[in-house]
UniProtKB/TrEMBL annotation, chain B:
BP GO terms, sorted: regulation of chromosome segregation
Keywords of the record: Repeat, WD repeat
Organism (species): Canis lupus dingo (dingo)
Lineage: Eukaryota, Metazoa, Chordata, Craniata, Vertebrata
GO function term, MF aspect, one: enzyme-substrate adaptor activity
One GO CC term, this protein: protein phosphatase type 2A complex
Start-end of Low complexity biased regions: 16-29
PANTHER family registered for this protein in UniProt: PROTEIN PHOSPHATASE PP2A REGULATORY SUBUNIT B
Comp. bias (Gly residues): 1-15
Protein name: Serine/threonine-protein phosphatase 2A 55 kDa regulatory subunit B
Protein family according to the UniProt entry: Belongs to the phosphatase 2A regulatory subunit B family.
UniProt region (Disordered), positions on chain: 1-34
């Protein structure tokens, strides 16, 4: 369990670094971002492989957002049942891995209590809070792209990061890791249970101003939970209009600036893309693609491609660095 | 090496050209002061010689030293900083009154090598930070060096002017033109001595050849070509030609999403002008031979040590990324630096290094914090002693480490203002890794991770080292008997 906490923390830190790299002087450093993405991938692997299913099984699919994703997640999961080599390695067996990993360090901003033994009732709210949190992540990212946000403190700025990644990463490998238990349980496991309660307090103040600054985006979803998919779509699309155009004009051999957006948008797109199969993350990914002209409708292709091609958009996104 | 005893200089050079082990020991001691000193770098007693730079606690970012390099003779020491400036120190001639004291390094020339630029097409700022300086072998009275930032390499000529012409016909002493009709007699201008002036002028600018950030440059042993390496490509240049370069390595995948490793450092072999190596972020080194094909994407040798699965962690990939690769002077070995260790490789054995030295293994349990504060991305450099018998690299808390390859001993020293009395010996430092902290030891948690020594250089023939600690340059020498 500790390792899930550790992994979660590392994921959030990594996302913060990727985010900050966009505003660093001298442009994005390819090497550093590659390393960060590798750490992100390792942490994600651990996060998914740490076998504590018992913690997450309790609790129904409380919110309206819950039911749609799992069946859709299954679809991309199954066709790509034979994953490409890069993602195929089994997670390290817990006992020796635990010995090697650093001790989890105290995380002052996160009370650990809610993780264990949360009851059924909070689950539904947690899911929605998680979704709201994810929207905040997106909004924050748009802020960076639009240049409206100042450099965000890494850990400060992204307490929500892991929530977002958690939900998206939960779904496809949920099908992969627990083939015998499709449906709500892995979905719950990956996306809702551990964090939302504890993340609620720190998140709104940290993110709110930045999100508003960005593009006037999503003042709505910032505060309150809303039913799953539709609010998720809107803020991202709105804010994409602004930076997307400018960014898409970037030269072909850009320093992979777009891949940052690519990476982060893939977190969301593979989730939201599954919900609605429309170019939610499209504009951002278009700028990130080396061969931007490859798709007549870049958004659509980019949404489907990472999801369908690799089964694990994470791997695609991460090695995109 | 003005003023040094010929025996010492000769022995130093001779041993450098020879084998790297064993027989070098006498070479080292010869360099150390004419015999009497036992073999091995660690029997040397290092002492403080000089420190350059401001004492202010508030360090301006532009003053942070980003590269240090001795020239081929060791008489000149160049530093580059984050503000794009190059400062060259020259070793003074030995004082005849004190024949045993070594010459001091004093400022010889300072110039602004690179300025910040802006790439309008990509809306990116190009930092003026000097990433690397490499000297060219001296061929005439002037000195030449290459300095590079992220995108552009420049060849600088540093020349001395100590005479000026006087007595021109067409202009008078103020420089004003004289009316030709007023001239009634002609004279020949004569050269008069003047105060020494050192001028630096850019002779070549090699630009627009790199899409990614340049991390290395290396002058070839043919003294006509050099390579420059960025994250994904290595280009070969001719020193005289600035509008063309040959791409000799390209590891950019067709689909950037498949990128898994980048080039982190590259260097030409010191004697074989067709051989170079480059290291990767995955901890591997590839040796390439330019005779085999124009594009050296296929390596001739591949050096990789299998990973120890028991030490796997989230950060295994980061700490295995190689930050520096340096050939030994002999050309038989190369040294690589990753985050926690330095490894010496025999070019004839690709399967594993012949030596592995732990620099700061006590940091292994702190990797998560180091990841958070970005220290895990620090790129430490390493260097060989002139005789290849010792290697040196930096660490945190202004510590630097030296490993003697013959005696297998290592020592940790500190570059600090407290130890900066002239000729004060440096006391070995020790980091306490757990349990009871002994007196004089420092615990891991007390280390100052903002004080990092990333750049060090060793004089090519003598035991003089230059250590860059943030904005200060320390020069240490071994104690003469």
């Amino acid at each position: 369990m500790e390792f899930k906490l550790e992994a979660h923390r590392i994921v959030s830190i990594s996302l913060g670094k990727i985010y900050n790299s966009r505003v660093q002087r001298g442009g994005i450093k390819l090497h550093k971002n590659l390393l960060v993405s590798l750490v992100l991938r390792s942490a994600r692997q651990v996060y998914l492989s740490d076998p504590c299913p018992g913690l997450y099984l309790a609790g129904p699919a409380g919110s309206p957002a819950m039911p749609p994703p799992p069946p859709q997640q299954q679809q991309p999961g199954e066709p790509a049942a034979g994953p490409p080599a890069g993602w195929g390695e089994p997670p390290p067996p817990p006992p020796p891995a635990r010995a090697a990993w650093p001790e989890p360090e105290p995380q002052p901003e996160r009370p650990a209590a809610p993780v264990t033994g949360a009851g059924d009732a909070p689950r539904g709210g947690e899911v929605e809070a998680a979704e709201a949190a994810w929207r905040r992540v997106e909004g924050a990212r748009e802020a960076a792209e639009g240049g409206a946000a100042g450099p965000a403190g890494g850990s400060d700025g992204f307490p929500e990061g892991p929530r977002g990644t958690r939900r998206q990463c939960g779904c496809p490998p949920g099908a992969e890791d627990r083939p015998g238990a499709p449906g709500a349980c892995p979905r719950l496991a990956c996306c809702c249970a551990p964090r939302p309660a504890e993340d609620e307090p720190p998140a709104p103040p940290a993110v709110g101003p930045r999100k508003r600054g960005a593009a006037g985006v999503g003042g709505g979803p910032a505060g309150g939970p809303a039913s799953g998919s539709s609010p998720l779509k809107k803020p991202r699309r709105n804010s994409e209009e602004q930076p997307g155009g400018a960014a898409a004009a970037a030269a072909e051999e850009e320093m992979e600036t777009g891949n940052v957006a690519n990476l982060i948008s893939i977190f969301g797109s593979s989730f939201s893309g599954l919900l609605r199969k429309s170019p939610g993350g499209g504009r951002e990914e278009a700028e990130g693609e080396e061969s931007g002209a490859e798709a007549a409708e870049p958004g659509q292709i980019c949404c489907d491609k990472p999801v369908l091609r690799d089964m694990n958009p994470w791997s695609t996104a991460i090695v995109a660095f | 090496m003005a003023g040094e005893g010929p025996a010492r200089g000769g022995a130093g050079r001779g041993s450098r050209a020879g084998a790297a082990r064993g027989p070098d020991a006498p070479g080292v001691s010869a360099g150390a002061g004419g015999g009497g000193c036992p073999a091995g770098g660690n029997d040397l007693q290092w002492c403080f010689s000089q420190v350059k730079g401001a004492i202010d606690e508030d360090v301006a970012e532009a003053d942070i030293i980003s590269t240090v390099e001795f020239n081929y003779s060791g008489d000149l020491l160049a530093t580059g900083d984050k503000g794009g400036r190059v400062v060259i120190f020259q070793r003074e001639q030995e004082n005849k009154g004190r024949p045993h004291s070594r010459g001091e390094y004093n400022v010889y020339s300072t110039f602004q090598s690179h300025e910040p630029e802006f790439d309008y097409l990509k809306s990116l700022e190009i930092e003026e930070k000097i990433n690397k300086i490499r000297w060219l072998p001296q061929q005439n009275a002037a000195h030449f060096l290459l300095s590079t930032n992220d995108k552009t390499i420049k060849l600088w000529k540093i020349s001395e002017r100590d005479k000026r012409a006087e007595g021109y016909n067409l202009k008078d002493e103020d420089g004003r033109l004289r009316d030709p009709f007023r001239i009634t007699a002609l004279r020949v201008p004569i050269l008069k001595p003047m105060d020494l002036m050192v001028e630096a002028s850019p002779r070549r600018i090699f630009a627009n050849a790199h899409t990614y950030h340049i991390n290395s440059i290396s002058v070839n042993s043919d003294h006509e070509t050099y390579l420059s390496a960025d994250d994904l490509r290595i280009n070969l240049w001719h020193l005289e030609i600035t509008d063309r370069s040959f791409n000799i390595v390209d590891i950019k995948p067709v689909n950037m999403e498949e990128l898994t490793e980048v080039i982190t450092a590259a260097e030409f072999h010191p004697h074989q002008c067709n051989v170079f190596v480059y290291s990767s972020s995955k901890g591997t080194i590839r040796l390439c031979d330019m005779r085999s094909s124009a594009l050296c994407d296929r390596h001739a040798k591949f050096f990789e040590e299998p990973e120890d699965p028991s030490s796997r962690s989230f950060f295994s990939e980061i700490i295995s990324s190689i930050s520096d690769v340096k050939f030994s002077h002999s050309g038989r070995y190369m040294m690589t630096r990753d985050y926690l260790s330095v490894k010496v490789w025999d070019l004839n054995m690709e399967s594993r290094p012949v030596e592995t030295h732990q620099v700061h293994e006590y940091l292994r349990s702190k990797l998560c914090s180091l990841y958070e504060n970005d220290c895990i991305f620090d790129k430490f450099e390493c260097c060989w002693s002139g005789s290849d018998s010792a290697i040196m690299t930096g660490s945190y808390n202004n510590f630097f480490r030296m490993f003697d390859r013959n005696t297998r001993r290592d020592v940790t020293l500190e570059a600090s203002r407290e130890n900066s009395k002239p000729r004060a010996s440096l006391k070995p430092r020790k980091v306490c890794t757990g349990g009871k902290r002994k007196k004089d030891e420092i615990s891991v948690d007390s280390l100052d991770f903002n004080k990092k020594i990333l750049h060090t250089a060793w004089h090519p023939a003598e035991n003089i080292i230059a250590v860059a600690a943030t904005n200060n340059l320390y020069i240490f020498q071994d104690k003469l008997n």
